[in-house]
Amino acid sequence: MSKQFTELIPGLPEEIALECLTRLHFSAHRVGSHVAERWRQLLQSRDFYYHRKQSGQTRKLACLVQSLPVPKEPTGSKPAAQARYGVSVFDPGSRTWYRVDPIPKYPDGMPLFCQVASTEGKLVCMGGWDPASYEPVRDVFVYEFTTQRWTRCQDMPSNRSFFAVGAMEGKVYVAGGHDDSKNALNSAWVYDLSSDEWTELTRMSEERDECQGIIIGNEFWVVSGYETDAQGQFKSTAEAFSIDSGEWRRVEDSWTVSQCPRSCVGVGKNGELINWAETDSGVRVGACGVNLGNRSLVTGSEYQGAAQGFFLTERREGQNCKSVKVEVSDDFCTFVQSGCCVEI
């Protein structure tokens, strides 16, 4: 690692130069990459990401798959086109919003029902339905915040929709969902970002369609879902994959039976699963929660057809969770399909 960090800034010892660049705001990384070849290699390296993380210089942002503002018809009564989706980014520190450039293959909107996850400061988008044909796709794209570009990666091994996803330490785990024939799946795979390769994992004990994935400690949890012959009958159980042992274990009574877990599974202060839709009356419909460390961004509506609400919840030692409404401009107050935390 020391060789990579030598002579970063002329006249400064490498340790001081490294600390200077470590404190560079992530929004300046793209410009910094053009200063010198050594800077580019450093800023885009995996080692630098972990160095920033260990130094406490990373920042946690919420990346949301969110419907884009739709122009109205001349009368102003109805939308002029169907809903399209993009990636919105919310910085809870500055309370600012911005939108990521679209995926080049899908300039008019992301694949419908695609899944997003993040690891090592990158955003991974996979699967979903082609927004024009509604056919399932196996595309995998990775967004690098340093270069602010999307890269197309190795396709998913097979078509699957409404699957669970979770990511940690440079790998993305997927499980469950259903195939092209609407058969629920119990298969699971892991994608390695560094090698751009997929590896099949041992199967879950049960089929789980429309399940939700979440990382808890060193485990990938697949929450609820239903079997092929029991469509819509969501299970109360979950299955947890140990990243150390490579084995699954079944977790009983982890979710409220018959409740859809999509986008609304969170982890409480005692490590138990919580339903974001039950945390505030303003997000009871279409709830989506993103854990941002000691606080979370939760979105949803009070009732069907109501305006979207955006809330920051904060957990403090010895105190109940406090929820504060976030004021959002018209460009970013639309429906949130799903989201994840990106630590940059």
UniProtKB/TrEMBL annotation:
InterPro entries, per database record: Kelch-typ_b-propeller, Kelch_1, KMD1-4
Gene3D superfamilies: Kelch-type beta propeller (2.120.10.80)
UniProt-listed GO biological process terms: negative regulation of cytokinin-activated signaling pathway; regulation of phenylpropanoid metabolic process
Protein name per the record: F-box domain-containing protein
Organism of derivation: Daucus carota subsp. sativus
Source organism phylogeny: Eukaryota, Viridiplantae, Streptophyta, Embryophyta, Tracheophyta
